[in-house]
């Protein structure tokens, strides 16, 4: 039962981090919130270092969307697809 409980906890954490990485632009501290959540996905191997860097750049810029930066740099295509960004 412990394995199942751990899996449930991990899924809940991932769902929470997904909400955070999608924090609306312009909210106070939203850039830092998105960056912290992006770090979660990076540590899980679900995001490249180059993609994470775009979130780092935008961490202090609450109104700046990291997704166009990722696209313009030609990195993180898997992440852009996952985010529904074209």
Descriptive key words:
86 residues; mainly alpha; 5 helices; 66% helix; globular
Secondary-structure element sequence? Answer: HHHHH
Number of strands: 0
How many separate structural domains? Answer: 1
Provide mean pLDDT, rounded: 93
Rg from Cα: 13 Å
SS class: mainly alpha
What is the count of DSSP helices, taking H or I runs of 4+ residues? 5
Straight-line distance between termini: 41 Å
> What summary fits the major beta sheet?
none
Coarse morphology:
globular
Poorly predicted ranges: none
Strand content bin: under 5%
Query: What proportion of the residues is helical, as a percent range?
Result: 55-70%
Task: Describe, in plain words, how this protein is organized in 3D.
By secondary structure, this protein is mainly alpha-helical. It has one domain (2-83). Helices cover 66% and strands 0% of the residues. The chain is built from five helices and no strands. It has helices spanning 2-21, 30-43, 49-57, 66-73, 77-82. Helix 1 runs antiparallel to helix 2 (30-43), helix 2 (30-43) packs antiparallel against helix 3 (49-57) and helix 3 (49-57) packs across helix 4 (66-73). The protein is globular. The mean pLDDT is 93.
